[in-house]
Amino acid sequence: MTEDDRLAAILADHAGREGALLPILHDVQAAYGCVPADCYQPIADALRLSRAEVAGVVSFYHDFRDAPAGKHVIKLCRAEACQSMGGAEMIARLERALGMKVGETKGDVTLEAVYCLGLCACAPAAMVGDQLVGRATPERIEALVAEVSA
Amino acid sequence: MKVWVPCDAAAVACGADEVAAALASAAGLRGEEVEIVRNGTRGMIWLEPLVEIERDGVRHGFGPMTPEDVPALFEDGDHPKALGPVEEIPFFAKQTRLTFARCGRTDPLSLADYEADEGWQGLKRALELGGAQTIEEVTTSGLRGRGGAGFPTGIKWKTVAGADAPQKYIVCNADEGDSGSFADRMLMEGDPFCLIEGMAIAGLAVGATKGFIYIRSEYPHAIRTLNAAIKAARAAGIIGDSLMGQGPAFDLEVRVGAGAYICGEETSLLNSLEGKRGMVRAKPPLPALEGAFGRPTVVNNVLSLAAVPWILVHGGAAYAEFGLGRSRGTIPIQIAGNVKHGGLFETGFGMSLGTLVNEIGGGTASGRPFKAVQVGGPLGAYHGPDDFDLPVCYEAFADQGGLVGHAGFVVHDDSADMLALARYAMEFCAIESCGKCTPCRIGAVRGIETLDRVAAGDPAAIELLHELCEVMEKGSLCAMGGFTPYPVRSAIRLFPQEFSLSQEAAE
C-alpha cells in the first residue's frame, strides 16, 4: 500500500463520524509514527476544514509528534505525587545514566515527561513502551529498556 | 484452587502479570488445578500485587507478592506474605463501599459476575420508574459532581431533560489528569459495567441516545477494558438499539484524548470531542443546553455516573443518609504520594484530614515527619497539621481557601521543597494552559519568573507574586488559571520562611 492509500484508508474508516479529527490523528500517528505535515491538507479536505485548523489541532495536543519518536519511548512522571517520592531525583539519575535529557531522542530511546499515569499510590511512576512501572528506580527502567532492546 | 491476581494498572505496574505467570507455571509443575481470576484492585495499592486465595468461602490475602513468593503458596505452613482474610484488613474494613462495592471482588469483564452482584438492577429500576422519577431519585440522593466542582447532578439532568432537541448526549469526563487521583481509572479497569450502567440510566433519564466516554490517552489499560466491556454489553443486548430489549436506544463510544490536561475542564473536553483544540468555552451557554455538537449534554465525571446504579437500587434517600452537611453520600478518597498506606478509601463525607493522613494513610512512607498534604490535585491547596480537624466535604475546604476537588490527597514529608513545588504549580499551568485567556496564559509564565526572583532573594517579588495570584484567580476563564494560585499561596502561608530565607541572606 502506498503512503497515500494508507491515509485514504484511515479517512474512509472515519467517514461520517461526529468530531472525527482526533481519532483520525491518532490513527495517522499509529500508522506513520507521527503526524506528517503532508497529511494536513488531505485531512482538512476530508473534514471540510482549513489546513490551518488541522495544523492548529495537531500543535495543541502534547501527544501528536511532527517527527517519529525513538523505538523505545520512556515516559517519566513529573507530577506532585511522584515528586513526593523522589521522582525528580530519579529522573535526574536516569538522565545521567542515559546521557540525555527529558524531551530528547538519542538513538533508539526517547525520554518524555508525562503528567500523571494514575499510579500515584505506587510512585514514582514511569512507562516504558506500553509497560507501566510503579515504585520505579533508574535501574529498573534501564533493565526494561535493555530487555525490550534485546 | 481459586486465585485472584489484579489486572489493575497499578497492580500490573508493580508486577502483577509476572506473579500471575509464576502462579500458572508453579501450578502446572505441580499438576494442580488452579483457576486464576484477574480481578480489579481492592485499592490497597501498598499491598499490590495482592493475591487472594479462597479457603472455606473466605478470600485470604497475600502481598505485596513477587514471583519468588509464589511457590510457598502451595506449601503448608504460614506464608511470609499472608495478610489474613482480605476484607478484615483494617484499611478495607473501615470503608463504606457503595460505588466501589464490586471493584476488586469480581472479574471486571464478566457479565455473569456483574449480574450476580446487583448488576443492571439500577437500570431495571430506572426502566420501571421512567425518566422523571429517575431524576427525582438522583436529586433526593443529594449527589453532587464527583469531578470536583460539586454541582448537583439531579439539577443538571433536569435541565437536559427539559431541553427540547432532536439529539442529546451523555458525556463521561474520564480525563482524570490530577496528580494523586486514580479513582476513575480504578473503576473503569475494575468495574467498567458499573459506569456503562450509570451512563445508560442517565441517557434514559434525560432522553439521550448516545454517550461518549472521553478518556485520557495516558490510561491505555482503562481504554482497552472499557472498549471490551461496551462490546460485551452491546452483544448481551443491554445497550444498543434498545436498553435491555425494552427501553429506548442508547449506545456508547470511547474517545481518546491526546495529552492535554485542560481537556478535563468540561467545555475544553467538549471542544476536543468535536475535533477542535481543547480551548475553554465561556459559559453561558451551559453545556446542559448547548453542549457536544451544540446539543443538550450531560457532562458528568466517572464517579458521579458510577454512583447512580447504587442510588437507583437502594433509593436516593438511602444514599443521602451518608455524608455531612450538603456533601451527601460517599467520596472515594485517593491517598497517595509519600504515605505508608496509599490507595483508595471510600467513605461517607466528613472524615477529618488528620485521621485520613495519620490513621488511614499510616503517616509517611519515608518514616520522616509529615510536612504537608496537597488536596484536590495540582490546583489544590497545601494543608499542614493545623488543618487536621478539617472534615472532608466541599464547604469546609472551600472555607479554608482550598478544595476537595476529585478527592486526591498527596502527602509530602519534611524533605519537600515548598518553593520548588509552588514554582512547579506555575510551570504546570504554563505547560497546560489552553491559552484562551490572558491571566492564565501569560500569568503562569510571569509566575515562574517571579518565583525565581523570590528564590534569588528579590524583596519586592513576594508582593508582586500576591498581586499576580489575585489577577489569575479573579480574571481567569476557568479553574486552570483561577486555582493555580491555591497551591502557591497556601505554600507561602504555611511555610513563609522558605520564601524569605534567601531574601534575608541577600540582605
Automatic annotation (TrEMBL), chain A:
Lineage top rank: taxon: Bacteria
Cofactor: [2Fe-2S] cluster
Keywords from the UniProt entry: 2Fe-2S, Iron, Iron-sulfur, Metal-binding
The UniProt record lists the keyword Transferase: no
One Pfam family named in its UniProt record: 2Fe-2S_thioredx
Gene3D superfamilies, per database record: Glutaredoxin, NADH-quinone oxidoreductase subunit E
Family according to the record: Belongs to the complex I 24 kDa subunit family.
Protein name: Formate dehydrogenase subunit gamma
The organism of origin for this protein: Thioclava electrotropha
UniProtKB/TrEMBL annotation, chain B:
Occurrences of domain NADH-ubiquinone oxidoreductase 51kDa subunit iron-sulphur binding (ranges): 419-464
Matching Gene3D superfamilies: 3.10.20.600, 6.10.250.1450, NADH-ubiquinone oxidoreductase 51kDa subunit, NADH-ubiquinone oxidoreductase 51kDa subunit, iron-sulphur binding domain
SMART domains, sorted: NADH_4Fe-4S
Keywords: 4Fe-4S, Iron, Iron-sulfur, Metal-binding
InterPro entries, per the entry: NADH-UbQ_OxRdtase_51kDa_CS, Nuo51_FMN-bd, Nuo51_FMN-bd_sf, Nuop51_4Fe4S-bd, Nuop51_4Fe4S-bd_sf, Thioredoxin-like_sf
Cofactor needs: FMN
Domain of life: Bacteria
Family to which this protein belongs: Belongs to the complex I 51 kDa subunit family.
UniProt protein name: Formate dehydrogenase
Organism: Thioclava electrotropha
